[in-house]
């Protein structure tokens, strides 16, 4: 039995609340159980210098955590003067994931900056962030479409993410903090609405894992991401 | 007529929602109209080095803004590598204000760190932060009291804050962003529940102001803070 | 009786020595008793990026303290790698105060940078800095006028500053370090030559203060600033 | 045909040269073709603060690149003042990989710091680094064993890493820079000598990839890592 | 003829004014013509960690320049967030020079921090700093002696410094800024009162220099430093 | 007898290996005994801002040390966030030395960046770096010449460097780490192929040194640098 009493392939309660920000062109408050991430998509007319003149746009992401999003208060990164390796790793992952499903030339020479700020953390913040960021990005693009700034299929597909792990010898879906702390293997999967894989990150926390175990995690992830994509579709409809 | 259509002495809709964080010992989501600040109070068993061995506790505050809390996305301070002068000025103000009404020896050799993170900004973030921080601090102290960590009147009084300004020649209370951008004078007042003044900050944005004008601002502030303290009392009851 | 033996409304010996720098366009060594601040005004042909093309100039200020300006040696900010919150707060105050009395369009698209470096500290460094900075700024503008770079009333008024506080239950003017350490309330006032208020900062160090007390402080400040403005007039004549 | 003319499952020429440093307790210069990484293992009697008193040791890793290791000179991280997100991501990966095969309690309360410095880069620097770091770590532990500082099976297994990718529609092993720049999918695998998986990182650079493609990459990696482990065995024998 | 009209072996007007700081244990305002450096010596009961328990003291130095000490305003190092290479080079030189003539065991486990802040610059700031720092250091040690903190010959000798250069083909002493900008070779010498050499730094700015030229510079320096030591003796008598 | 058993005027085994980098326009691995420095010269089409439009090029240098180049592992400068004063001092010295023998106008508006990275340290890293950097710079310029980017005598002369010191009362050449740690005086000399002096840095580590001693060091350096220049000539022929 999982500590969370969930079935091995059971997601936490997931909600995607749109238009939660008065200012941002697109926004989404995503909740995976007690993990709450505020995602805002901001349209910016500037573009990274190395992209200028290529007729393509860019999507980038930043990730942060409020100091008391966690059980123990963590030092504020703005105060310690730098972003941790973990923060940078996660925001690079979110950015790559979103770019995988955006038609950058259709965006024009503009940048969309997606901020994913963890208001409350209980495991799986990066996967919640990617899942919610897609909704914020979608709404930002629709905002632009309504102003004739873009046309065509700028968003090529959905993108969503979920964690899986081996806990107590069993492959389980969507680990919360307690389960994650106690898991042997921790893996994050990012997949498109049509089932293509965009990112796989698997790490043995204790014992190395086998190919068979990894195949089980992948199967769980596929099913979970399918359900997240359905929730995204409902959210934007 | 004010842009906000409010009467000169009319506060925005103010709400103080308690216990919004799963982890923090005390927390409050404060809203002054469209200005939303999440305040968490974290109990920490460590104390600043220069206070050790004096049998007194400490209360400190940090302030932050999500990058898209504002109309234009601002650069994330964690990414630029330092907190702006404005951020530091505000967090020093919040800390001083809270310490003014805490009996530090009764706290014991512990620190309460109050984080005030602006989720959405529309003027008056520092005054909303102080007003909400008091509720978070109150709940943190009650959390400690329930565990026999403190006894007695640790919180000596209420503390709340409000901005006033001279807009279109008229002294007005609780300016929103639009009013603030267009005001001649901007002042922030921090007062206790019993009417004592803890902080006054008045700045002429355009023309210098007169003693009479300042007296009007102070009178407005006094009345507004009285109402905020009433709301705090209702929130914790 | 004040520790300094001064009457409640008595300034320390104040001197304003002009042209103390071989290089700066304007300079003033200001002394408020044992508080000595070197103020230099430097004309720069560049302007902050966000001001370009608006036909207006800018005045900015920086503040620093030599490491052994104080009783205990403090760490050099250049060595610790950042300016403290206090330093930033003060230099923002000085800059705002000076801009309040400069006709920025008459300055043309140029910046005057005023550096206020505390050579020796004994309380009231920010108020001495503002008072001396006005003289340095005045001389810089006269330097420009002599070269036909500006014309007209670029300096709209005098600006000067003084601290007041409640010490031993009594409102007193121009606190030195010893008095300041022991005061219940500490307030800084910045006013123009014509008596307009530009900045008010009042902080309760111990007990909150009342409106009546604040009114006494304001009255003391008004009288003190009047005398400082007279000294500025003598200095530049 | 691959640009490198290698067969799809063909490694570059790999060499592992031991004892290349006069000072380090263990060292290895690893070459994967034109990718050259100097790995040194340094024994340190100190331990991270959060590990103290637990009777366990620690293995950590740092990664760097000489500025002209690459085709275009890159800015020196020591001069830009921080390590890039990519650098931090890689050194966290190397550290995790090494810790997966070290019996930390057998190490005692000591830390081994492994530095992996890229002297010349041509793709696959992180996988070369992990493969060479194992040899340096091995020799450091033997150095300790010879001095009776450790006993028993401190190194539980081999660890090695390889990249795979989909290039021109074909799954290929050990991509060089040219192949990597042009690949649709890029994956890094870290596995033990006994075939357990420790890390999997797969990223779609262009189109998302399928489960079948990922299975092919994993099979290639398994075979390649087997050969790398054989080379490690020869190197230390 | 030198631009300064001085004879080749003629020093600028040198003054050493003691006890210029209310707070510092020793202080000296040194002027070499228009180069003015404020030197303060601060006694600190702490010692660098690597010196603890060895029964020896330490002397260290820091160097800074006010932003408008120079003809063009320079960026404040506290604001740019780091000390330049030049600043660090100079403060290391001052520290080494002073330590050369201090009996560190006689100092006990204490540190004297000497701050050399350039109030106004006109060439030769590092040599003026060393020459004035000796006086501040002397007075700090006498302050300690008066309190029975030290005994014996803590200061083993005088130390002073001067610059020389080849200007217009001629070896000249004590270059001012104008001469320095136009010199072919720039050299700084640090020597003791008894004529021992402590530091030599010679740099060809344009053409390399010959052994003969260097010998001339050394001879000039020797004579100049002799006169500086005489001035130090007069200053402390 | 020197610890290294070498004669007083005997260099360590010196080798200069060219073309050790696949990417750099010029490169040299220089060894002075166990001191190994990798020097790469990188051609860059950009130039420092303050040089633009003057028709001249620039040569700059950066210096680094691998963390375990030394007996004790040192903290990585990229990780500590800044270059030490020592690093900056050395890289400024290398840059000045190289510029002394380059005809900058002949280079055109381009920069050559020379990176000197210490792979293994055993004393004398800066002098080895300068000696090897000349070879890398030479090859970079020949690379440019072969592409008709430069013509004429861009390199005006050779430049090489050596350390000398007073060890056990005797003047000795080319100190290794052991000798350097135990020397009374440490001096570095940079000279051209035609015997001109470009840099002299002499420091008394213990007792001040005399003019006579310094003359002995200079004579040793002259002879040593002559032999280094011969080795450079052989290396490029």
From TrEMBL, chains A, B, C, D, E, F:
Which InterPro entries did the record assign?
Answer: ExoRNase_PH_dom1, ExoRNase_PH_dom2, ExoRNase_PH_dom2_sf, PNPase/RNase_PH_dom_sf, Ribosomal_Su5_D2-typ_SF, RNase_PH, RNase_PH_bac-type, RNase_PH_CS
Q: Which GO terms describe its biological process?
A: rRNA 3'-end processing; rRNA catabolic process; tRNA processing
Recorded catalytic reaction(s): these are: tRNA(n+1) + phosphate = tRNA(n) + a ribonucleoside 5'-diphosphate
Q: What class of enzyme is it?
A: transferase
Q: What is its EC number?
A: 2.7.7.56
Pfam families per the UniProt record, alphabetical: RNase_PH, RNase_PH_C
Please give the Gene Ontology molecular function terms for this protein.
3'-5'-RNA exonuclease activity; tRNA binding; tRNA nucleotidyltransferase activity
State the source organism's domain of life: Bacteria
Q: What are the alphabetically sorted keywords of the record? A: Nucleotidyltransferase, RNA-binding, rRNA processing, Transferase, tRNA processing, tRNA-binding
| SUPFAM superfamilies attached to this UniProt entry | Ribonuclease PH domain 2-like, Ribosomal protein S5 domain 2-like
Summarize where phosphate binds, as residue positions: 86, 124-126
Does ATP-binding count among this protein's keywords?
no
Q: Which parts of the sequence belong to the Exoribonuclease phosphorolytic domain?
A: 10-140, 159-223
Q: What does this protein do?
A: Phosphorolytic 3'-5' exoribonuclease that plays an important role in tRNA 3'-end maturation. Removes nucleotide residues following the 3'-CCA terminus of tRNAs; can also add nucleotides to the ends of RNA molecules by using nucleoside diphosphates as substrates, but this may not be physiologically important. Probably plays a role in initiation of 16S rRNA degradation (leading to ribosome degradation) during starvation.
> What is said about its interaction partners and assembly?
Homohexameric ring arranged as a trimer of dimers.
Q: Which family does it belong to?
A: Belongs to the RNase PH family.
What is the name listed in the Swiss-Prot or TrEMBL entry for this protein? Ribonuclease PH
Organism encoding this protein: Stappia indica
């Amino acid at each position: 039995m999982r500590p969370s009493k969930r079935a091995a392939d059971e997601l936490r309660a997931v909600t995607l609340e749109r238009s939660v920000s008065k200012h941002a062109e697109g926004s989404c408050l995503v909740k995976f159980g007690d993990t709450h991430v505020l995602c805002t998509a901001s349209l910016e007319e500037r573009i990274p210098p190395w992209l200028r003149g290529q007729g393509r746009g860019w999507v980038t992401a930043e990730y942060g955590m409020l100091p008391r999003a966690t059980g123990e208060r963590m030092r504020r990164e703005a105060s310690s003067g730098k972003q941790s390796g973990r923060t940078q790793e996660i925001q690079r992952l979110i950015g790559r994931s979103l770019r995988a499903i955006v038609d950058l030339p259709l965006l024009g020479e503009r940048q969309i900056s997606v901020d994913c700020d963890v208001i409350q953390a209980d495991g799986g913040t990066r996967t919640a962030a990617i899942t919610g960021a897609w909704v914020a990005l979608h709404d930002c693009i629709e905002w632009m479409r309504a102003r004739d700034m873009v046309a065509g299929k700028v968003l090529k597909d959905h993108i969503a993410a979920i964690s899986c792990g081996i806990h107590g010898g069993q492959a389980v879906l969507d680990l919360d903090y307690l389960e994650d702390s106690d898991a042997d293997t921790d893996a994050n999967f990012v997949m498109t609405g049509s089932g293509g894989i965009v990112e796989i990150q698997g790490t043995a926390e204790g014992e190395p894992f086998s190919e068979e175990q990894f195949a089980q995690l992948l199967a769980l992830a596929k099913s979970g991401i399918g359900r997240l994509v359905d929730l995204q579709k409902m959210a934007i409809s």
